[in-house]
Every structure is written in C-alpha cells, then in structure tokens.
Amino acid sequence: MALEHAILVSLLEQPGSGYELARRFDRSIGRFWTATHQQIYRVLRRMEADGWIAAEEVAQDGRPDKKVYSAAGPGRAALSDWLREPVEPETVRHELAVKIRAAAFDDPAALISEVERHRDGHAALLARYLHGEQRDFPDLTALDTTQELQHVVLRGGIEYERMTLAWLDDVLATLHRLTADRRP
C-alpha cells in the first residue's frame, strides 16, 4: 500500500488540511499505517499535482490561509483500482521472537526486562485503542457503513494487542520458570 491510498481513504472519510491529516494519522490511521508529517505534506503536493486531490484555500482569522484537501475523481478511480488488486499476506519480521529463541544459548533471564518493556508498550497501546473505541464509537448500534468499517479495523487492532499481551505473558512465565530451573 502506498501512502497515497491511506491519504485518499482519510480524505474520503473527511476532507482536511495537511495538519488535520497528520493528526488523523497520529490518532487513528497510524494504527496500521505510519507516516511523518513531512511525508504526508510531500505526498499531498504530488497527489495535487497528479489531480488525485483538490485543494481549496480557506481563510483563517489571525493565521495564514490553509489548504483543505478532498479526493478528486482521478484519486477515487486510483483507490477503486487499488481496492480490487490482490494483497499478499504480510511477511512478519519479529526481532524479539528471534531473541527469545537465542536465549536458549545464553541466559534466559537476560531477556526478562526487554519482554516486560514490550509488554508495557503493548498494554499502553491496547489501553489507547480501548479509549479510542469508547470515544469514537459510543453507540455501536448506530454506526454507518464508514464507521462499521473503521470499527472492524480497530477491533482487529484491539484483538492483536490482546493476543500479543497473552503471548508476552506466556513468554515471561516461561523465562521466569527457566530462570528458576537454572538456579542451584
């Protein structure tokens, strides 16, 4: 997936300025596609030049005018074409998993603090997702199509973090058991 597709999705959900798009990436789209503010602005300029998006100058009191972007016909067509392309399963590269296997050749206790750090990060992310779910989807019985699809992606993130936490708990229990078994 190119950043262009993630931006088009965001603009179809709601037109916005580059700053607003960057905030959306930080808050929601960033759950599954990350981009820096610089990358977003660079791609917006290219997409505007290619006719994929349109920009409207909006005057602001006491501040410089801003550009509000929206998806244009060619952008919608590109997104439609991309939506119909097959997606290959993602290749997983998991450095922590390799380190866990490597612990068999060293001291398993050496990994405990690193696994705990990962666990803390995933627990914080899960808490953020759950907070976002309560904030953005307070009434699950009244969702429109866009909200239903946004919510199903968020649920996938929530379940992924729950699964990861369960696995990290299992890793920690194993490391602690192995460490206890090695004591004289």
From TrEMBL:
Transcription regulator PadR C-terminal domain segment(s): 92-175
InterPro entries according to UniProt: Tscrpt_reg_PadR_C, Tscrpt_reg_PadR_N, WH-like_DNA-bd_sf, WH_DNA-bd_sf
A Pfam entry, by short name: Vir_act_alpha_C
Ranges where the Transcription regulator PadR N-terminal domain occurs: 7-80
Gene3D superfamilies on file: 6.10.140.190, Winged helix-like DNA-binding domain superfamily/Winged helix DNA-binding domain
PANTHER family: TRANSCRIPTIONAL REGULATOR YQJI (PTHR43252), TRANSCRIPTIONAL REGULATORY PROTEIN (PTHR43252:SF4)
Protein name per its UniProtKB record: PadR family transcriptional regulator
Organism of origin: Streptomyces kaniharaensis
